[in-house]
Amino acid sequence: MLHLDLDAFFAAVEQRDKPSLRGKPVVVGGVGGRGVVSTASYEAREYGVRSAMSTREARARCPHAAFLSGRFHAYREASEQVMGLLRAVSPLVEPLSLDEAFVDLARADLPDLEVDTVTAFAQDLRSRVREATHGLTASVGVGTSKFIAKVASDLDKPDGLVVVAPGTEQELLRPMSVSVIPGVGPATSERLRRVGIHTVAELESVSEEELVRLLGKASGHGLFHLARAQDDRPVEPERETKSVSVEGTYDTDLTDRRLMEGLLTRQAGEVAARLRKHGLSGRTITIKVRLHDFTTLSRSTTLSSPTDAAGTIARLARSLLTDLDTSGGVRLLGVGVSGLADWVQEDLFGETTDQEEEPLPEIEVPHHSRRTWAPGMDVVHAELGKGWVWGSGRGVVTVRFETAETPAGPVRSFPEDDPDLSPWRPPDPTPETAGEPA
DNA sequence: TCTGGGGTCCTAGGACCC
DNA sequence: TCTGGGGTCCTAGGACCC
Which helix (H) or strand (E) is A335 found in, with range? Predict the structure, then answer.
């Protein structure tokens, strides 16, 4: 099994496409008041900036970093190049996200699976990834299971390769923290710590019954085997989507119910558009509400037949909100659809199963979520060509005119409504109907 | 003004059915 | 008066992953 992980992926794509940021701290993530870090470049990590940290804290730790809101079209494009390379290696490729995948080498065209053979192959694969993506580096791990391959890819980051020889798995794992095991996060670690279990070696000394009692059936059983490096999970190249959702955290807590209903309505429209785009429909509509104190509630309802209609999803979402006491303020709202089917109910009786689409209520959209000029976004100027947004505010956008091919361009400022300046969109292949959240 | 967004999987209780 | 067992579906919440 091979696990490939692109190093500091989002930040690396930004440094590739924005030459002036190479060698400098770059932070990609939410840039609003409640944003968090998605990816920090290695230069930013030196200042203690980490994924999932609030952007506020990241700014405090590394004020001179470039804070960018993310360009998913570019990440998706680079990801597809890499996944394409992997699929040429083996038909069994399982992407875990845009920057990670498992590859079953038993189905690759290799003379054998000896350590030397696999090592040479993996090194060659890593250089092919670098060439295909114009410089992105990948860390790769190889082992006898998904678990070992994934652990291995983490051992020599960035730009590293570790091949774990068969038979050496347990001596590798035993000194490690239980948190290397997939599914062991902060809560499980704490539970284990409280009974004196810190390492995989210590976990190994606990009986399966004891683990099940401590952690429940599924994780107890799973941990018992993973602690012994027993992992026969296959690579699953085609996993079906089980839910589609849209959510948003607002810079200031919402208190106006009409506004909340308007936002849910808009989110329902985005969910419906994505369902339709993928030919899906679903029976269960769920709303998610995070209150001012971070308590998170969900309410759901299930239809007798699946829908992909914006009006239906919106109406149900709004009515689910009715139950909830939001008087203290709401920081997050979301809408999701699950119980998916890849077909839509035939209308056997010739009646409209969906009600007439209601006109969407006019809503005041909070300013931050309408920001046209997000930092880092691609723009094109009528005369100066392609560049990217360095910053904006007080009616002015500052643009650096550079691309991967044309570094060291000028920095110029424009009025925010300058007709010569527009967002650059990736060419042709079916642009998103609903805007991608940054 | 600590704490994103898009997901997956698990658990537990209750309704309901045979 | 006491009180089966198994199974499925639904809801709500929580842990976890990238």
Answer: strand A330-341
Asked whether strand B has any atom less than 7 Å from the CB of A329, the reply is: no
Q: Which one is catalytic: A14, A43, A100, A261?
A: A100
Tell me the Ramachandran region of residue A94: left when phi exceeds 0, alpha when psi lies from -120 to 50, beta otherwise.
beta
Closest listed residue to residue A345, CA positions, set A308, A305, A310? A305
CA distances from A150 to A182, A226, A435 (A): 9, 13, 33
What are the tens digits of pLDDT across the range A112-142? 999 999 999 999 999 999 999 999 999 999 9
Do residues A81 and A4 lie in contact, with contact meaning Cβ atoms separated by under 8 Å? no
Please state whether strand B lies within 7 Å of residue A331 at its CB atom: yes
Which of these CATH numbers, 3.40.50.300, 3.30.1490.100, 1.10.1060.10, 3.40.50.10800, describes A243-356?
3.30.1490.100
SS3 A130: helix
Distance CA A154, CA A3 (A): 10
Q: Is the pTM of this model over 0.85?
A: yes
